[in-house]
Each structure stands twice: as C-alpha cells, then as structure tokens.
Amino acid sequence: MMILNELTLRRFRIHEQLNLKFESGVTGIVGRNGTGKSSIIEAIGFLFTGEGDDPKDQIITAGQSGTAYVRGKFTLNGKEGVIERSLDTSRVMLEYDGHKLIKASEVKELWAKLLQVDGHIFQHVIMAKQKKIPELFSGETAVREKAFQRIFMVPNTERLRSMIWDNYIKTCPPPLPEDDLYAIDQQLARLGTELTPKQEKLAILGASILNDAQMMAVVNYTEFYNRCMQDAEKRPKLEEQLGSLRTKKEELLSLLQRAAEQLRDVPEDFSSKLEQLKRDKERHRNFVLAVAEATRLREQLLATGTTIEAAIQAAAQAEADDDQARLNQNTLGARLTALRKEIDGLTCLTGATTCPTCHQPITNIESHLFGLRAELVKVTDEFQAATRKLAVTEANLAGQRALVERCRTIQASIDAANRQAEVSRIDFNEETLTAMLAESQRIQQILSSMQQYENSRVQADASIQVVEEQLRHLVTYTGNASPAEELALMQEVLHRHRLRTQEITALEKEVAQLQMEIQLLNQRRDTSVANHEKNLSRMEYNNKLRMAYDVLHTSQFPRRLVQTYGAVVEEELQQQLQRFDLPYQARINEDFRIIITKDGHPVPRLSGGQEMVVGLCLRLALHSMFSQAFPMLIIDEGTTHLDEENKKLYFQCINDLKTDKVIQQLIIIDHSSLLTDAVDHVIRL
Q1: For the chain, how far is it from start to end, CA to CA, in angstroms?
Q2: 271-428 has which CATH code?
Q3: What pTM was computed for the model?
Q4: Closest alpha carbon to 82 in 19, 7, 1
Q5: Partners of 4 in beta bridges
Q6: Could you read off the pLDDT of 26-78 as tens digits, one per residue?
Q7: Taking burial as the number of CB atoms within 10 A of a residue's CB, which of 256, 364, 458, 530 is the most buried?
Q8: Is residue 12 within 8 Å of 39, Cβ to Cβ?
Q9: Among 16, 21, 108, which residue's Cα sits nearest to residue 68?
C-alpha cells in the first residue's frame, strides 16, 4: 500500500522552497487563487511519473538560483522510501529497502515494480486535474479509445503482428517428407515372408549342435585320447632313459668305492706332517736370506773404506776444526764492526783530537783514518777468508757425521741379520718334502675324482627322479577300442559341429540383414507417420497463427479487448452515478462513446455540472479496478460547475470513500466551504 508522507519542492512553478507533510485519510489543500495549489498536484504527478504539464525548463522558477527538484518520502508495504527527480538535469534517485539507485534505467525499473500502475493510469485515473475531470467523457473518441487502451494495458498488437509474421509465418519450414505407407507395408510383408523360414531353420540347426557342456566334454575327450597316444610313444623312451641312468649311477658308485680303497693306506697325520715340512722350508728359506743379507751389508761397510771407530774420530776432529773456524770468524767480525764504528766516529772530526776508543791523543786525523781504512780492508779480506773456511769445515763436519750415521746403520742391519739367521737356523731335508708333495698331489687328484663322481651321482639321482615322475604321470588307455579310433570319432563329431556352426553363422547374417531391412523400413514408416502428424500439426498451427495475425489487427483485437471491459465499467459507472441521484443510465458503445440515456432514450446534451459529475464518476469507476494496487486518489477542483446540492453529494461521496477505506489516501483541492468538514487534514497555502 502506497502512502505519500512528505513532498519537497525546489524552484517548481511559483514555489521557490516548499515542504508539505501528508498523512493517510483525506487531506485538503486550501488557499487563495494563485497560491500554487494546482502546482502541488502537478508536482505529485511529476514525482510519480516523471512527466509534467509543460517541458521542464518552463516549470523551473525563473530568476532564481540553485537546484530545481521534487522530492517525496513515501511508505510502501510498511517500508519507508525516498524518490527525487531533478528539473534542471536528468538526475533521479530512489532509496528503498536498503537500496539506493541513481541510474535512470534502474530507478525506472524498480519504481514501476513498486507502483504496479502505468504512468498513463496515474495521469488519467488516479489524478483528476483541474478542467480535465470530464475529459474521458466529453473528449474525442480516438483520444478516449487510446486512453482506455493505456488504462487497461492493451498491448501494441502491430508489434506483435510483425513478430508473428517475421518469426513464425514467414519463416515457417516446408512440409516434412512423407513416404508411401502402402509400398512400405508391401515391402515389410515380403521381408517377413523371407524371414520366417530362415528363423525356423535357424532354430532347428541350433537344437542340433552341441551345447557348451557337450562341447566341453568332446574337447576334453579329444585332449585325453591325444595324450594317450602321445604318452604311449613317450613311455619306451622314458623307460630306456631310466635304465641308462640307473646303470650310470652303479658305475659311479663303483668308481667311488675304488677311489676310497686307494686312500686307505694314507697315514692319518699325513696332512699335519706335510704342513710342518712346508713351515720348516719357509723357516730355512728365511735363514738363507738373513745370512745373505748380513754378508751383503758387511761388504757394503767394507766399501766405505773405514771403520766405525775411525769415522767417529774423524767426525770429532772435523767438529773441532769447525769450532776453531767459527771462533776465528766471530773475532774478525767483531774487529770489523769496531773499525767501522771508529771510522764513522772520526770522519766528522778535524785537526787534533782524542781517539774515542782508546782515548789517546791524535795529532793527524786524516793520517789516522787512512791507517784505519787500510786495516779495515785487511780485516775484511781476512773475515771473508774465515767465512769460506767455516763453510768448508761445516761441510766436512756434515759429511763426517753422515758417514758415522751410515756406518752405524749398516752395523745395526748386520746385527739384525745375524739375529734373524740365528733364529731361523734349522735342519731341513728337501727330498723328504718333495716326496711328500708328490704324494699329496696324488691324494688331491683322487679326492677331486671322488667329488666329480659324487656330483655325477647326485645329478643321476635327480634325473632318475624326474624320469620316474614323468612315467608316473603318463596316461594309460584301458578302453576296448584303440585311442586312434576314439580320437577319429571325436574329430568327426567336432567336424559336423563346425559345419553346422558355419551354416548357423551364415543364416544368422541373412536373418540379421533381413531384420535390419525390416527395422529400417519400420523406422521409415514411423518417421513418415510422425512427419504426417507433424505436418498436420504445423498446418493447424500455421492456420492459427494466420488467424491470430488477422485478429490482432488494430481494427479488431485491441478494440474488442477494451470492449470486453465495457460491461464492467458500465456497471461500476452506474453505481457511481447513483451517488449523485442522476436519473440517467450510461452505456459505452463500440466506438468508445459514452451514451447517456434516460428512460431508454439518449440525452442530447448535458450541462457543464452534469459532465463534471459523469467525468468524476467515470474516473471513480476506473479507479475501483486498481484501488488495491494503488489506493490513492487526487482531485483538483472537483466541484467546478456543480450546484449546491451536487456539491453536497460530491463531499458525501468523499465521506463514503473515506468510510469504505478502499482508497487509503485522498488529496483534494477545492474552494468550497464544505471541504473542511469532509477532510481529516488541511494544508493551507
């Protein structure tokens, strides 16, 4: 249910700034002429429909600055909302149920959904503007017909007719192909005649062939007889192979026995004695090697040309010579350092002075320096000679020490070789070892032969077990006939079975081919029947479309549709006329003219007041068809041209509407003094 709660105008007509509060019930707007009462009604129409009586630039108050707009607060289904439309721009805003829309297309879509009434219905039914109340009654029939079409939401049939023609009639596909059903039935009968005997023969052949169990039994018998014949051939060969293996086994056992007899004369401790002789030989070899090494070292020591004692004495002498040469070098070095220091100290002096070293008087420094420098050269030569001699003595000392160390090393090795020879000394007989080694080789050959005999015996036993196992698994035929005769019989049975199976396969292919042809013919027949039904349905559908196309012509369907509402409107209009005690009847003819009659005769002319009453009643009648969707009514100067009696009836009608509560909000503008008694709220301008 829509209720307008508040209306704000900014630069609308004569209203620079106006804010009005509205409530449910009947609200009357009063004021002197020129105070802008009708502008408020126009503003309400602009707020709800976006349309005004004049272009927007003519509605805006001239000579003023600031934004021009109309804003309204409303309550719909218990929820408050706000809608605002600008006059100087295309801006529009709608807030409702937590959503705020500013895009014109979105606002238009949601607002139309909320109102549930068309803008033309609002302008021609809900709003009754000043001087336009009798318009639907006294206006031209074309205008009234168009208004009725908009009020009753008659669709644009020309657009619908174009859509039907372009999308359906014009694009209707050609008829679907249909085959000759009689010819198809003849072919099906012929194929059925061919198919029946083949199916009967196929059933007879199917009963005459072996089933799975019988086929399995024949296959098993065939395999059994084949195996009997194969095993009969294998048995002599296996028995011969088994005899040969057993003979070979006996021979190997005999060879093993003879080899064992050859080993009986070998002493039990033969192996230990042989090992002891091998160890003695190794020890004797070590003794020989140690003696040879000692001899070689003695020769090496003799090759040095000295003894250890002589080498030690020579090393001691070389060490004494080295010490003397080092002492001599150090003494000359100290003298050389002192001379350089003395020469450096006297170089800066002149005339007579005292020697800084010995403190003796020096009368001629230059002569004294000359003597010192000559001595420095001499001492330097002696120092260099002492250095060279020291190098020689150091080299000699190192050589003597190395010779002593070498002699000691050789002597130590000689002592170690002598000790090793003493430890390894043993009595050893090479011939005894040679004889025992030959006997050992003979024993090893016998043992190796015995191992080969034993391996061969094991292999022979394994082969004997394999052959015996094969003999045990051989099948023995115990029937009266021979296995070959039984096998020939089974093969004959299998041959006949294969021939019949091949014949059945060929028949099955022929039957399948015939069944495929029958299936294809049935599919063609079903398709033809379905296509025939579809063609009939398409033809019927196309005829209905063409009928609808013709019916939807402007001169037929829209007028007929509106005419169907005529009786309802006439009935409601008659009830509204009774409110004003008019002794007239109203009828809407085919061209949408409203005929007023009295006692069955047309009334030639109505007065201005009567036209006002009929126009008001017609609007009330039309509004009753939409009051549940939009229970609001706005009337501007509804008492124009009415006498006092009809004015009283007009306001009585307002009271009845308020009492019936069919219309929840009425907004009325009127100059009559009776207005204040009929309204619930008054807005004074």
Answers
A1: 28
A2: 1.10.287.620
A3: 0.46
A4: 7
A5: 74
A6: 999 998 888 998 899 999 999 998 888 888 888 888 777 788 999 999 999 88
A7: 256
A8: yes
A9: 16
